[in-house]
Fold this sequence. Notes:
Blueprint: H1 4-10, H2 13-24, H3 34-46, E1 50-54, E2 59-66, E3 70-76, H4 102-118, E4 125-132, H5 140-146, E5 157-164, E6 171-174, E7 181-190, E8 194-195, H6 205-223, E9 230-239, E10 245-246, E11 249-258, H7 261-281, E12 285-294, H8 301-314, E13 319-322, H9 332-335, E14 340-346, H10 369-385
Parallel strand pairs: 3-4, 3-5, 5-14, 6-13
Antiparallel strand pairs: 1-2, 2-4, 6-14, 7-11, 7-12, 8-10, 9-11
Helix pairs in contact: 1-10, 2-4, 4-10, 6-7, 8-10
Amino acid sequence: MKNQIMLEAERLQEELSEWRRKLHQIPEIGLTLPETVAFVTKKLDEMDIKYTVYEDSSNIVACIGEGDTCYMIRGDMDGLPITEQSQEPFASANGHMHACGHDLHAAMMLGAAKLVKAHESELYGVAKLFFQSGEEIFAGARALIQAGAMENPHVDAGMALHVFSQKPLGTLGGHTNPCAGAYGFRIKLTGKGVHGSSPEDGIDPINTAVHIHQGLQELIAREISGFDEVALTIGKFHAGSAPNIIPETAEMEGTLRVFNPKIRERMIRRIREITEGVAAAYRTKAEIEVLSDVPPVVCDADELAWSREVIQEVDDSLTAGDFHAMGSEDFAFYSELVPTAFYMIGAGVDHPDERLPQHNPKIRFNEKVLPIGAAIYATAVLKKLGK
């Protein structure tokens, strides 16, 4: 059984797909999304919905309704610096790609806006729709919060959906801890460059970096229980320009993913101790730069239970199971402030063997997820703020 909002959303399928495909062709990254903002605001204008654009961060906050009670829904809009290889007829050609599905998120939000606006007379409060930039660099949510978007009126609770390319249509996954915190770091090592024929006259930062890398991997092997959930990865290593020269510097970048705040603090301390200790042993100067620092997403148990009822009301054939993974999300910054629910929503293409992971240049999504997401958002707004 489907509710009235879901039936209305299904009638928007063609329009939602059209919006999604247009957004898919203009992916932009970070906090600078001029074409995306222009497209979204044009549609909001056509719907006669009030909004604010935060020019310095390309964030948009649309508001529907009046009153002191306020419920927030969020959809991110930024893409990735990936060259698309999906072979879709509407593929991007600008060197960037919506390989995480944020084009679908923005289209769902526009669909929700249209549905809620049509039922505005039923609202007793304000629906805030966050069209957010910079999720991939963990900067968009923080920018909105710092700009005061959670106030006037104060957001009381919120929800976000994120498409999941490896799960079938009609499935959702939620959890009190759906996403891990992320600590990204860069280690810069400075030694003394010399010709490779006389290494005794130099200080080799590559050698130091190799030992630091080994030491960091041993943190997981020897200082973390097998019952804990921690991932530490060095994904970037750069040094040198010629095979017969010991370079002056070496750089490595990595990421730490963890759910437990105490383990997180201990691991960050140990990363620094190992880096500084090994560097000192090999006479190398070490500098650590923090690239990102995002807490885990912590959802409210009562809000999750309520949102599962919303999902069943939208369409009782939808299934809401668990999702608990080491990926990170800057929705965490909102979940620190107010009760939230966060769901991964299945958007896999029909054939399972063609489903690829997020951030893959060949990834494709199932557009039938668009009315489902729009209906869940709109139903949540109307139930939370309904008279």
